[in-house]
Design brief:
2 strands; globular
Length: 442
């Protein structure tokens, strides 16, 4: 009985930790912990930790980066690789497949980026902080799904699918914004090398190479080239993701035929087995089944499933802990330009209005139509939850500011993101709770 209870507990724990909602909760906990540590007696050690240099020396020349850059440039490249794989999957087979299905979430995401961007720029245009317009554009899907999970059946499946699709399209938009507006000092030599590596990746794909190792090796060189050319290195991960093949080595029917033959061999060898040890033929058969299992899997899905847990439960929490720790002291100036208002109003007001307005216009102009059963009230509520921006917003913050006021503006921006995301989550939840009560009373 005790063993059964333990097994049930472990199964439940495994189910919880594998959910997107748990990823959001973990992300929030790491962000809160970072704020606590940064404002505790350990604050100085916390700040110094991320500036620690890691690398090696070659002929007296140091090759490496600070821990902060290892996290933001290298670890986050894996996060962006997963994002790129998700986008490719959704575009080919998911909610973004085909113009009719993709039109609404893409247009909604566009509105959810333009609205916040315009609000921020209207408040900060012409100031040293104007380059931060990309900060309130992003939606954090892990946090948003965490909130949706707490709302349960009060939110329909159609609304959840709409919000997830919107967030995926939003991620693509954020990647484009980073590539276009947050790159500097372009080196055309390295850019040409980057383009050459992408061509090689596409040739591998075209030749039908399904093994992931060649792609990952070229991906490392692509990261180095993109990092050297002036475009943010994480864009390399997205380009790599788009070249990963989808089709498996063998189709499912061939897989089943081959496995049946292997199992028959295994069964024949069983007749000659003496004791509990497997025959050599059986060991080889098991290895062959494993090989066939890899051959029938889609390379894109195989890589996505392998990396996704690390992205959600290791990389993003580390990123949150490294970047959310802002020391709230006398040096924090919330009046630095209008950074706080630009981000807060952008996420809390600009997101829902932009998403709703663009969705409304798309339907009225006949460009796209709402999913069956989704009301305009629910579209606005989803837009409110779209104002939860954390991971990508924090990432853009690290790229947005420069000059003497960069440190202060960055701290204010990070605090603004946390406050705005919390506000958007609460308002979105209240919105759906109230709508649910009104619906039940009618």
């Amino acid at each position: 009985m005790e063993a059964e209870n333990k097994s049930g507990f472990l199964a439940t724990l495994s189910k919880i930790t594998q959910s997107e909602s748990f990823a959001g909760v973990l992300l929030l906990c790491c962000a809160v912990l970072a704020m606590i540590v940064a404002n505790s007696p350990l604050g100085e050690a916390y700040a110094a930790l991320w500036k620690t240099q890691f690398g090696f020396s070659v002929n007296g020349s140091f090759i490496g980066m600070s821990l902060e850059h290892w996290i933001n440039d290298v670890l986050m490249a894996f996060f962006f690789l997963v994002v790129g794989l998700e986008i490719k999957r959704e575009v080919l087979f998911g909610e973004l497949a085909g113009f009719k299905r993709a039109a609404l979430p893409i247009i909604a995401a566009l509105g959810g980026m333009i609205g916040p961007g315009l609000i921020y720029f209207a408040l900060n245009g012409g100031t040293a902080s104007e380059h931060g317009f990309g900060i309130p554009m992003a939606t954090d899907i892990a946090f948003a799904l965490g909130v949706l999970a707490t709302l349960g059946k009060r939110v329909s499946v159609s609304v959840k699918v709409f919000l997830v699709s919107l967030a995926v399209a939003d991620d693509l938009g954020a990647i484009i914004v980073i590539a276009l507006f947050y790159s500097s000092g372009i080196s055309f030599e390295w850019l040409a090398i980057s383009a050459g590596i992408v061509v090689l990746l596409l040739v591998l794909n075209r030749l039908g190479v399904k093994a992931l190792t060649p792609y990952m090796i070229l991906g490392v060189f692509l990261w180095i080239a993109v990092h050297s050319c002036g475009v943010h290195a994480t864009i390399a991960a997205v380009m790599l993701a788009f070249t990963i093949p989808v089709a498996p080595k063998i189709d499912t029917m061939s897989f089943m035929d081959r496995v049946v033959k292997i199992v028959d061999k295994f069964r024949e060898a069983e007749k000659e087995k003496d004791g509990i040890l497997l025959q050599n033929e059986q060991v080889h058969a098991l290895a062959e089944i494993g090989s066939q299992k890899n051959a029938v899997q889609n390379p894109l899905l195989r890589l996505e499933h392998a990396l996704a847990p690390y992205s959600s439960f290791v990389i993003m929490p580390i990123f949150a802990f490294a970047n959310a720790g802002v020391t709230i002291g006398s040096n924090i100036d919330f009046n630095v330009d209008h950074v706080f208002l630009g981000i807060f109003l952008g996420l809390v007001v600009g997101k829902p209005i932009g998403i709703f307005l663009f969705t409304f216009l798309a339907e009225k102009l006949g460009i796209a139509a709402r999913p069956n059963g989704v009301t305009w009230v629910e579209i606005f509520g989803a837009g409110a939850l779209g104002g939860i921006g954390f991971t990508m917003s924090m990432f853009v913050t690290n790229l947005a500011f420069s000059g003497e006021h960069a440190l202060i503006a960055t701290d204010v921006a990070k605090i603004s993101i946390l406050i705005a995301s919390l506000t958007a989550g609460i308002l979105g939840s209240i919105f759906f709770l109230v709508r649910d009560k009104i619906t039940h009373h009618q």
